[in-house]
Amino acid sequence: MDLRSVVSLYESAENLGAPVASVHLDTTHDDRLSATHIEHRWRALRDGLAEHGCDEATLTVLDKAVGGVPDLPGPQGESVFAADGRLLGVHTLAAPPPRDQAALLPIPDALALVVDLDHQLPHVVVAVDEHGADVDAFPVSAEQPDTRRTFHGTTLHLAGLLADGPVTGVTRRRREGPWADVADQVAQDVLAAVGEVRARMVAVTGDPQALESLRDRLSPAFSAPGDIPPDLVLVTGGRPSGGDPAALAALRRSVDAALHDATTARHRATLERFRGDLARHRAAEGVPDTATAFARGRATALLLAADRDHDHDPQLYASATDPRALATQAPALDGDPTAFAGQAGALLLRSAVAAGAEFSEILTPHQVPDGTGALLR
């Protein structure tokens, strides 16, 4: 994935020059006690941040932001960043992070957020019935000011339907009328939506006869020479009416499954390329060699396993002011008064963002030392 979508987070933190509190939390609301459980788990993380020196003003900002979206059906997570009493970003994730965690570092620890983004594709959801169609176009993320919540992936779809107003970045078209009268217009709407977000997938659901008719109209455009066409995927769920939570949840599960299949194929292809490049000495594996590659400006893509806890993620040393200054031993950065230690995943990700590198999750971490690697220029 392209890491440009998180550049502003790092820039905001750098401008403040204060320690950044990064919180990643499972905020799924699946029963009436969910809010209480989320609050208790947040309090445990909050206590840990306070013990590590997080200031009260920043903790208070986090108190107001943490909690998820109670009306959002299905699984969700949350990544929240704050520093010096200011909110740097609050992001609803399409899936909970591997574990609840919080960190206080000179830089954001954005790995859980980036992994969630890496499981998304710009896509279009088309829901049709005999009365018309809804065509919604979704970028990977909906960019919002730092005082508002940012949605990603399929949470964009539900947020757009549940919100009082439109979610920034989401384009919606609705066609009403007998299918025979609106079919051509719907097909044009779909093509326009694909172009707006450069969609890699079109998920279509609803009336079987209408679906077949729509496929016939789209196939010529999707098979034409030029840009790589998006995958056309049939999903279950139907056209939700009146914001019905059960219908929304069913459609989300279907779209999530289609996105999972598409991104899994992409991750596997990247890992195969990594193995081939490793044999040609055009890749690095393991934390030490990957850190050296970024320090020398040779890395073009970072590959990381998502589930990296303190017991299994090696420690690196870095400069708070120079993203390329990475080392496996503290003496290597003795001359830098801003040097600090942190988990390798967070520090390597920050170097990758600064380098304009790509990112891909390693789905089979046991096959790569430390669950860490890089493609080289």
Helix and strand topology:
Elements: H1 7-16, E1 20-26, H2 34-51, H3 56-65, E2 77-83, E3 86-93, E4 101-105, H4 111-118, E5 123-129, E6 132-138, E7 149-151, H5 154-162, E8 171-176, H6 179-197, E9 201-206, H7 208-222, E10 231-234, H8 245-279, E11 283-285, H9 287-295, E12 299-304, E13 315-319, E14 326-327, E15 339-343, H10 344-355, E16 358-361, E17 372-376
Helix pairs in contact: 5-8, 6-7, 9-10
Question: How would you portray this structure in words?
Answer:
The protein has 377 residues and is α+β, with helices and mostly antiparallel strands. The protein contains 10 helices and 17 strands. The strands form 4 sheets. A 5-stranded mixed β-sheet has the order 4-1-2-3-7, with helices on both faces. Helix 5 (154-162) runs antiparallel to helix 8, helix 6 crosses helix 7 (208-222) and helix 9 packs parallel to helix 10 (344-355). The radius of gyration is 22 Å and the shape is globular. It starts with 6 loop residues before the first helix and ends with a strand. The model has no long low-confidence stretch (mean pLDDT 89).
